[in-house]
Amino acid sequence: MNASAVKIAPSILSADFARLGEQVTEAERAGADRIHLDVMDGHFVPNISFGAIVVEAVRRITKLPLEIHLMITDPDDYFDDFVAAGADSFLVHWEGNDNLHRTVQRVRQLNKRVGIVINPATPASVLEEILIDIDQVVVMTVNPGFGHQHFIETMVGKISRVREMINRCNPQCELELDGGVDEKSAPIGVAAGANVLVAGSAIFGDPQGVAAGVDRLRRAIAQTADVTKPKGK
Ligand SMILES: O=C(CO)[C@@H](O)[C@H](O)COP(=O)(O)O
Ligand SMILES: [Co+2]
Known about the structure:
Elements: E1 7-10, H1 20-29, E2 35-40, H2 52-61, E3 66-71, H3 79-85, E4 89-93, H4 100-109, E5 113-118, E6 136-140, H5 156-169, E7 174-178, H6 185-192, E8 196-199, H7 201-204, H8 210-228
Parallel strand pairs: 1-8, 2-3, 3-4, 4-5, 5-6, 6-7, 7-8
Helix pairs in contact: 2-3, 6-8
Residues 11, 13-14, 36, 38, 69, 142, 144-149, 178-181, 198-202 line the site of 5-O-phosphono-D-xylulose.
């Protein structure tokens, strides 16, 4: 994986909501590539976060693409609201969706990008028949619902397997990791094949500020090249 091509997607779940605009602007100026917005309904996951009204507010203060991670039941019912609010892509879960192909087609009809998210206990093999139709796979490296959790190291094998499937079936498809990404886990995930990293607490919780958090992660990712490069090259 070319470490310089890895994209960073700050998750606003860990932002200071009293200073949300300021912090998103700081992330954008520091070189973040897109903004990740975690929508939770208290049913699909045991937590409630925010809905389209916050997406609309973020849309007004940044030109970065907005990706909406939908941790809600019946995600299809809400696509129109999020599109009206300014969403650029939808990340929908494999879990609990018996009609995932239809969901993907609905997003396509709206001319938005679509990614499939798989939880830690879900095997890579469920992607086999849908991979050709999507723009992104998101491997959850924590159980969904909360920020500030630890990266589940046993996901590394699954990340490599998804990378192999993507290279074989749909090389344009992005491989994103979500949860517990920090300066320690980022190079591990990138070495395994990820090319987009979501980070909430590592960026918005950085004691030196949001820009320092983005820089720290960028420097950690750059180390991946050294780790994976054959000796003497
Ligand atoms: O979707 C989720 C959690 O369900 C994530 O996007 C988290 O918001 C990432 O936060 P950190 O683990 O980086 O603090
Ligand atoms: Co997320």
